[in-house]
# Entry
Amino acid sequence: MINVLLKTLNQKNRTIDYPKSTPVLPERFRGLPVIDRAKCIANCKLCIEACPTDALTDGLKIDLGRCLFCNKCLSACHTGAISFSQEHRLAARTREDLVLKDSSLNSLKLIESLDKESRRLFGRSFKLRQVSAGGCNACEADTNVLSTVVYDLGRFGVQFVASPRHADGLLITGPVSRNMRLALEKTYEAVPAPKLVIVVGSCAISGGPYIDHPEVLNGVDPVLPVDLYIPGCPPHPLTILDGVLRLLGRL
Amino acid sequence: MSLPAFKTLRNCQTIAIDDVPLVDTTVFRNSIITAVEGGSRICALFGVPRDRLDPQVFSKQLSRAVIRVFAVLAHDREGTLFIISTDIRGSYAALTPDCPQAHWFERELFEQWGVVPEGHPWLKPIRFHKTYNKTEDQTNARESMIGITDFFRLEGSEIHDVAVGPVHAGIIEPGHFRFQCHGEYVYHLEISLGYQHRGIEPALIGGPTKRTLHYMETLAGDTTIGHAMAFSHLMETIMGVSVTPRAKTIRGIALELERLANHIGDLGALAGDVGFLPTASYCGRIRGDVLNLTALLCGNRFGRSLVLPGGVAFDLDNTLVQQLKDRLRAAFSEVSAAVNLLWDTPSVMARFENAGRISKETAKSLGLVGPAARACDIVRDARYDFPAGIFRFSQIPVSTWDTGDVFARAYVRWLEIQRSVTFIQNQLEMWPEGKTETEIKNLAANSLAVSLVEGWRGGICHVALTDSRGLFSHYKIIDPSFHNWMGLAMALRNQQISDFPLCNKSFNLSYCGHDL
Ligand code: SF4
Ligand code: SF4
# Structure
């Protein structure tokens, strides 16, 4: 027992001071893509051709909902027009807001929180049921990490619960495999109204690497109404936390 | 050892598809059974429609029904692979009654191609998708509804079923479990998967395309490096390209970091499952610290976009090497303290010991891999038996234990954590100079190669076949979970149902890696 206490002392308090300060992300972290059109060569389509999910389209519009943050566009570009910033705040309230016509740090639009009534309902206590519907276990893992001592999600009144009947909403990962459709719908029905749906990862937003496979439904949109989209493959835990807290009007 | 009917090959060796012995189905069957009795195990057993291998055959109707079945066997002690093939039309005598480790493969063969292994004791779908080559005359190629199958039933007045999933209580992937119980006592657990099926294998045919690598990285996202490495090795083998020592070193470090993060996370979760919260919370955090080391390397905590055919996309400079060393040292000292608490705490050991025991015989006959096999005293580790890349130069000793229970599966992970840390530290000391990427070429035509990598869950096996244009005519992925799910079912026999979470976590198998 003494030994356990000693070890506990040695392990120290590790909860980050977020949101008062934001932890340093690794230098190579790929956050919001920044495209500098001035550097583009006319009619060059190298980045568009390199993109595995057609996230980049003509006019260098970039759809964060499809983007895997995979670096292929950057490697393909000869002029250094594309880079990834350290900006981790990427969540959006609508699918259209994820399609950036002009991707730069200045154009960053942080999301609006829920209306006053919903904030009153969920703002201080928000229980989520997580459903993986074809997710690769990376989005799931980086969601799970929020419950560790580092992020200590509980201190914001947000918690993952075991039963949909105890939940205020769903947090869904994965491209929604056909084989999970029914289970997902049933889980949604079991959540008492009013309820929110948060989708995490490019899979759940658009199908991600699995876009247009006959075995998947290209994300949650075709199945359920979505309140919050959190892009990434997988999104960094901070990106998820930022999205959820902003939605609740806690940031 | 030589097995007459087979062609012998090494890990990462390219051969012409025509060099794979094509034998009569009876010879095929007997050869596999004899080889497995002699100590080999089935690495891969899969079908390819013959017309895909042989575009000259124009009588489509006829050839569609013919499936060429390939078997790749591994003899771990000798480090050799053996390959053989046969053509099957409709049905054949199942291997499973004489060779239990074929059971899941034969179910897959049946589900994918409608080939019926006659006499298979439990021929049910494993992923619940449409048979790929559905034709009018194949009546067993039925459309399957997920989770609808003939589950085992035990008769008796007080016997009941407990059905769990696909949606579970925690943040984990979906799968369906059925326990046949008498009170708390479990007679049998049946595991029914397929919920995560995303159609990866069919999407790989005709590749490689620009999405191929992303399928590899996300088919089991917690094993991004493992599968990306198996794929890259295979590509490089068939291209005839060799990567630089520096790239090999970075790959090796990334693979061991992946192992560390997952093993540490699992030890924490095991502690959580027995209600020992100190270790649960320390390990949960330290796991994150290790993921952050991978992010230091490549910007992504799971190693996305690091490994690619030809090498690695990110280099390490001296500052990063120093940071890695320092942070790894700190993480290791913290994890040592956290994990050693487990072995010193009687209430933990009382739950770990004797729970979910599997005998060595069962593990062998099921062909288990990874820590689950090594916990049953089986010396089986691809880094040692079939070394590729950096492991040809720096070996990691195989960690085993002999009790086959939850404790053994936990302890083997702890041994592996220590050895992986030493390995990474050694690599960071002798840092080879040079580039990190090598120019890649086209894939050789009409070729076949096998690639084995020891992922953190066990041996990953990829097999690629190319057509006359050097594109994939078939690509087979076998995640270690494919071998091990039945091991979990066996571990639950004669246990308390309340020990299920603990037993489950001690295996921590992949749903998506199985479902593909
Ligand atoms: S980083 Fe995003 S936009 Fe760039 S190639 Fe990858 S998926 Fe496409
Ligand atoms: S978005 Fe990426 S990380 Fe998330 S489940 Fe899909 S493939 Fe995995």
About this structure: The mean pLDDT of chain A is 90. Chain A touches chain B through 66 residues (CB under 8 Å). Chain A is about 25% helix and 15% strand. The first helix of chain A runs from residue 2 to 11.
